[in-house]
Amino acid sequence: MSISEGRILTRKAGFSVSEAFGGFRLWWLVLPAFLFFLAFFLVPVISLLAISLNKTVPGVVTLTSNLTLDNFVRIFTRAIYYEAIIRSIVIGVVVAAVALALGYPLAFLIAKTEHPTRNTILMVLVLSAMQLDMVIRMYGLMVLMGDTGLINSALMWLGITSAPLPLMYNTFGVVVGLVQVTLPFMVLSLIGIIRAIHPSLEEAARSLGATRGEAFRKVVLPLSMPGILAGSLLVFALSISSYVVPALMGGWKVVVLPIHIYQQIAEAGRWQFGAAVAAVLFVTSLIAVFVYHRAAVFTSGGRT
Amino acid sequence: MSDIRLVNLTKSYGEGNAVSDVNLQIGEGEFFSLLGPSGCGKSTTLRMIAGFIRPTSGQILVGRDDITALPPEKRDIGIVFQNYAIFPHMNVAENIAFGLKLRKLPKAEIARRVTESLKQVGLAGYDERYQRQLSGGEQQRVALARVLVTEPRILLLDEPLSALDKGLREEMKFWIKDLQKKLRITTIYVTHDQDEALTMSDRIGVMSKSRVVQVGTPQEIYERPKTLFVTSFIGHSNVLDVRVLRAEEGSALVSLAGQELRTRNGGGLSPGAAAKLVVRPENILMGSALGPTDARLEASVISEIYQGALVRYRLKVGDQEIVAERQNQAHVERFPPGAEVTIGWDPEWSEALVA
């Protein structure tokens, strides 16, 4: 009863707002944002994607009317390129999974911490990880994980290993770097969702006969799905589009799509081919959004 | 189904006690209410029984079993929450089947019992609905069905009506009571609403400041309050300053503004001491309505407040004010402001309590 009343009220409120602003005139308020978005995002991105349909001519950026799919054919027929696509996706999925595994317990703890001071301290810890520039954080990781870094020096000094472990300049290093960068995004996506799960739901499950683990699996986890999906999508998208982390932690040896884009455009001046790789990266992200949407519909039990 | 006993149940947080030394015995099939203002410890008591809070000391016994240390899932105690706690990611049928699936019952048996219990709560055909498609009253019924289908030994209800609007609350009050009577399930009902407690309960335990201050039938609680707290929390009462003249077993003689009155003795009175005389407005008789054995006082009318079915009088005796209520019936005597009137009451309907 109260729910339907609420709906009516919302509708009334929405109606009166649009009435006051004359409906159409409200749109003028978003005009500046729209113009900014148009000028500095849509136009450059579309023109970049457009030149991917031109034949690759080093040093030339101008769009010509001579359209061809040559660049894309090359990407999907040369192992070096299509393997990079797969590598990017696999790294993105692994980073999302690791960030979820590490982030969920942390988010759960923060969400369940009612003590205001402790809660603030935990939030500051999470947010402070985002405050330092990514390049600086990566150099910090390199100090830790390099062949003569803290971890390897310590292991060898203790006599546990005789040669340095390969912690960096490989996929492992890239994954560690990306998890470090993306973990706060995962945690922030989860906290709000977990906090919104009323404690009485878990208690109801318990008193109906569920153990702590069963109550988590059957009630808390399914209700966390919106946060898990949103966080995973965010982390995946950040990971596959990251250039700095694979460059520094992978030492150019872990060749993912952004590395190709950089090499093609900045080093070889092959704008058209770089644009084609960028288009592939963009479509990969779009597919992830689509998968996310389907998963969201599925896990919500068709309650959309 | 079972009886339940709380033995010296105590929960302390830091320095203060949320629940102090609560002893209660609730019989099989009984509808027992814990009534008190917010923060009195009634919800903490309920949550200890459910197993969500570990008591600091004391015991909880169901039948012959000591369940004090058991986790909630092993207690076989059902609870309905104030917000109903319907699982939003499951439909009504899945919600109700939740406890049965955990008990690993065969599928056909689960389906049969879900259908049966939906019929029992008057929601046949609601299987496929989700929480957000249900009204407050319907959620309430689903929450009850979900608990009752598992046939718990004890049913706990935590302010289950407080989220409903008034009309529905009245309806659900009688509906829950009828269902409880039919199933004969031992029920503990937590509420701050005296109307709910008085209409639904077999017995009421009034709680104040972490303690149970009085246990009794609704009639005993209303008519024979043992403390000033119970008096003021349940219904309206005149609480008057008196001096004890004589205290005997069960009755006492007190003086109020120089006039002598016989009254019941609430206990602990000593001659010469100050006390409080408690009498409810509806029990005060005026003028010719007084009988020969009634306690009498001379009073003057301050004002007459007409309320339709009731007429309320503000009266003055000495420097104290008394409120009296009279049914507005045919031929009822009316008293204008300023009138001198004899008022009084049956001594059995007033109580002298230690001040």
TrEMBL record, chain A:
| Gene3D superfamilies, per database record | MetI-like
Transmembrane region(s) = 26-51, 84-110, 139-160, 172-198, 219-237, 273-293
Localization per record: Cell membrane
Q: Which family does the similarity line name? A: Belongs to the binding-protein-dependent transport system permease family. CysTW subfamily.
ABC transmembrane type-1 domain mapped to chain residues: 85-292
Chief subcellular location equals membrane
Q: Name one GO biological process term.
A: transmembrane transport
Q: Could you tell me which species this protein originates from?
A: Kaistia hirudinis
User: What is its membrane topology?
Assistant: Multi-pass membrane protein
Q: Which UniProt keywords apply?
A: Cell membrane, Membrane, Transmembrane, Transmembrane helix, Transport
What cellular component terms from Gene Ontology apply here? plasma membrane
Protein name per Swiss-Prot or TrEMBL: Putative spermidine/putrescine transport system permease protein
**One Pfam family from the UniProt entry?**
BPD_transp_1
CDD domains tied to this protein:
TM_PBP2 (cd06261)
From TrEMBL, chain B:
Gene Ontology CC entries for this record = ATP-binding cassette (ABC) transporter complex
Q: What Gene3D superfamilies does the record point to?
A: 2.40.50.100, P-loop containing nucleotide triphosphate hydrolases (3.40.50.300)
Please write the reaction equations for the catalytic activity of this protein.
ATP + H2O + polyamine-[polyamine-binding protein]Side 1 = ADP + phosphate + polyamineSide 2 + [polyamine-binding protein]Side 1
Keyword ATP-binding among record annotations: yes
Any GO BP annotation: quaternary ammonium group transport
| Residue span, ABC transporter domain | 4-234
Q: Which UniProt keywords apply?
A: ATP-binding, Cell membrane, Membrane, Nucleotide-binding, Translocase, Transport
Q: Which InterPro entries match?
A: AAA+_ATPase, ABC_SmlMolc_Importer, ABC_transporter-like_ATP-bd, ABC_transporter-like_CS, Mo/tungstate-bd_C_term_dom, P-loop_NTPase, PotA-like, Transp-assoc_OB_typ2
Which Pfam family, any one, appears in the UniProt record? TOBE_2
Please provide, alphabetically and separated by semicolons, the GO molecular function terms listed in this UniProt record.
ABC-type polyamine transporter activity; ATP binding; ATP hydrolysis activity
| Entry keyword annotation includes ATP-binding | yes
NCBIfam families on file = potA
The protein's assembly and partners? The complex is composed of two ATP-binding proteins (PotA), two transmembrane proteins (PotB and PotC) and a solute-binding protein (PotD).
Give the protein's biological function.
Part of the ABC transporter complex PotABCD involved in spermidine/putrescine import. Responsible for energy coupling to the transport system.
Q: Which family does it belong to?
A: Belongs to the ABC transporter superfamily. Spermidine/putrescine importer (TC 3.A.1.11.1) family.
Name by which UniProt lists this protein: Spermidine/putrescine import ATP-binding protein PotA
Task: Give the organism the record lists.
Answer: Kaistia hirudinis
Q: What is the lineage of its organism?
A: Bacteria, Pseudomonadati, Pseudomonadota, Alphaproteobacteria, Hyphomicrobiales
Name the encoding gene, please: potA
